[in-house]
């Protein structure tokens, strides 16, 4: 069976901090534009935290709901006093985030090598389809697999089992590609191979005794290793 690479979307293919420029504009009126990177970081961290908490509670909602709640929390925490119009606009920007610069060419190299590529995300299928399309990389993927189909969030083992079910693949032929250590650990725990895209050179990996099969700096390096 051919190897299949399942790419995490947010933070791996798509730059979640692509919202910083818009945040700078929105905060300029408060003379706080320098707060934009911190706002973006906290927003993303809280988005993931809320998905983890909802997973533990068995209180699943669409991932965009976690994103909106995280935006509301970050606005309160940093006292940025965004209006509802501002928040609606920022959610719209989040739906149009850019792909990382090397993503398109790296995916082309993998396709030329005959590697199957799919997108695998906490986001709903509709949201991910739209996000990848506007970023110009949807056609590089055979399909989109969303956790929404099983109403669980990564790193629940059920979502990795569902990925294999959808792809009709064996664990040894299935690779998760992710910049998120929790996702890599979840996939390895579920018996899949996993590559960690370590986009920040000094980022530590969680000391759980479960390591990625390979670590790469970006998707170009991934294509060199697995293409």
UniProtKB/TrEMBL annotation:
Keyword Hydrolase appears in the UniProt entry: yes
Pfam name, any one: Hydrolase
Top-level taxonomic group: Bacteria
UniProt EC number: 3.8.1.2
Leading EC class: hydrolase
InterPro entries according to UniProt: 2-HAD, HAD-like_sf, HAD-SF_hydro_IA, HAD_sf, PGP-like_dom2, S-2-haloacid_dehalogenase
This protein's UniProt keywords: Hydrolase
Keyword Lipid biosynthesis: no
Reactions that this protein is recorded to catalyse: an (S)-2-haloacid + H2O = a (2R)-2-hydroxycarboxylate + a halide anion + H(+)
Function, in words: Catalyzes the hydrolytic dehalogenation of small (S)-2-haloalkanoic acids to yield the corresponding (R)-2-hydroxyalkanoic acids.
Similarity field: Belongs to the HAD-like hydrolase superfamily. S-2-haloalkanoic acid dehalogenase family.
Protein name from the UniProt record: (S)-2-haloacid dehalogenase
């Amino acid at each position: 069976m051919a190897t299949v690479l399942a790419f995490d979307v947010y933070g791996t293919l798509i730059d979640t901090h692509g919202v910083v420029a818009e945040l700078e504009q929105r905060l300029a009126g408060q003379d706080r534009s320098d707060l934009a990177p911190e706002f973006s970081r906290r927003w993303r961290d809280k988005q993931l935290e809320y998905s983890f908490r909802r997973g533990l509670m068995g209180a699943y909602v669409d991932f965009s709901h976690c994103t909106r709640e995280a935006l509301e929390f970050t606005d309160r925490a940093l006292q940025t006093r965004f209006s509802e119009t501002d928040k609606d606009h920022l959610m719209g920007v989040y739906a149009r985030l850019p792909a990382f610069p090397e993503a398109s060419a790296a995916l082309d190299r993998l396709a030329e090598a005959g590697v199957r590529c799919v997108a695998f995300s906490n986001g709903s299928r509709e949201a991910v389809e739209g996000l990848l399309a506007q970023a110009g990389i949807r056609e590089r993927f055979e399909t989109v697999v969303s956790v929404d189909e099983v109403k669980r969030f990564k790193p629940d083992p059920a979502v990795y089992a569902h990925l294999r079910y959808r792809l009709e693949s064996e664990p040894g032929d299935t690779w998760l590609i992710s910049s998120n250590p929790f996702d890599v650990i979840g996939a390895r725990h579920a018996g899949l191979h996993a590559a960690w895209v370590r986009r920040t050179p000094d980022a530590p990996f969680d000391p759980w005794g479960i390591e990625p099969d390979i670590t790469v700096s970006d998707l170009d390096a991934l294509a060199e290793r697995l293409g």
